[in-house]
Design goal:
Blueprint (H helix, E strand, L loop, with lengths): L4 E5 L20 E2 L2 E2 H11 L4 E6 L4 H6 L4 H9 L3 H5 L10 E5 L6 H6 L2 H4 L4 E4 L3 E4 L4 H12 L2 E7 L9 E7 L4 E9 L10 E9 L3 H7 L10 H8 L5 E5 L3 E4 L3 H14 L4 H19 L5
Helix pairs in contact: 8-9, 10-11
């Protein structure tokens, strides 16, 4: 069955970005010149996804505004012949392909996915976490969908993570099948590094079979009273294969202020419009910093 639908959880409070996230959803914070969530929606559309369900909560109406057309602004720009600025307003997709569901309480990723159950039905679907932006020749979602089409199994995006970051991830116990593909034997949510079965952490892309909803409904709340997707996947293991794919591409975690800054700098250094000026600024800043520190005494 073709995978047509995707869930994009975007109901978190964004506490790492306070105070700005008091009024602006963290998903709309810019990575260079586009909001973080924009990159994820582009990835889904480029991968052939037809229907996108964004999970939001109270106060996140700006996400709906962003993906809707602004006829007044378009008219004003057209009247002033600001056609370059007008081109930036081209919608990333047909607004009708995006719908929204509200998560009344923030009870974890698993709970967010459950809120969209009635819109998914009995179809396989994608989950995309907008905190992870991946730049790759083949869109990351498309990489996972290609694996799904071959094996018709749940597929998780994975990558090798530093030992000191293991406790930030769901981690798999892997059985290698090919150079990049692994059978998942077990999953552990945010283990201490000494108890982790590998250094292969799950990142924010999944292709899931609809049976995950039943598993989520059976999953007990874990730490913080949250329903963890990793725990539900663990329940599926005896009955359904789960695969982990070590994807090709460069990932940026924009779920922290530093990660957001690094992603913006990375894009700016690769852009012909900004790279030279940014290099000059960095070089000047480094020289000024060295002068402030004074000469090094050997």
């Amino acid at each position: 069955m073709k995978v047509r639908k995707a869930i994009v959880p975007a109901a978190g409070w964004g506490t790492r970005f306070l105070p700005v996230t008091k009024v602006i959803p963290k998903e709309l914070l810019p990575v260079l010149n586009k909001p973080a969530i924009h990159y994820g929606i582009e990835e889904l559309i480029a991968s052939g996804i037809e229907h996108i369900i964004i999970v939001i909560t109270r106060g996140k109406h700006l996400l709906e505004d962003y993906f809707s057309r602004s006829f007044e602004l378009e008219h004003a720009l057209r009247e002033k012949s600001l056609y370059e600025a007008l081109s930036y307003l081209s919608p990333v997709c047909d607004p009708d392909c995006i719908c929204y569901v509200h998560q009344a309480e923030q009870l974890g990723l698993g709970h967010a996915i459950l809120t969209a159950k009635h819109l998914i039905g009995e179809e396989p679907f994608v989950v995309l976490l907008p905190d992870d932006i991946v730049f790759s020749e083949v869109p990351l979602t498309k990489q996972l969908l290609d694996i799904y089409q071959e094996y018709h199994a749940n597929v998780l995006a994975i990558e090798e993570v530093p030992e000191h970051r293991i406790s930030d991830y769901g981690v798999i116990e892997p059985l290698q099948m090919t150079e990049r593909l692994y059978r998942v034997l077990d999953l552990i949510e945010k283990p201490r590094s000494e108890y982790a079965p590998s250094r292969l952490g799950i990142v924010g892309r999944y292709v899931l079979l609809p049976e995950i909803f039943s598993a989520l409904e059976e999953t007990l709340p874990g730490k913080g009273g949250e329903i963890q997707l990793t725990d539900a996947l663990k329940l599926l293991l005896p009955n359904q294969p789960i695969l982990g794919y070590r994807f090709e591409g460069r990932r940026h975690d924009v779920g922290t202020p530093l990660g957001l800054l690094k992603a913006s700098l990375s894009l700016a250094l690769e852009s012909v419009d900004t790279a030279e000026q940014l290099h000059q600024f960095i070089d000047l800043s480094m020289r000024q910093r060295q002068l402030r520190k004074g000469p090094i005494n050997h």
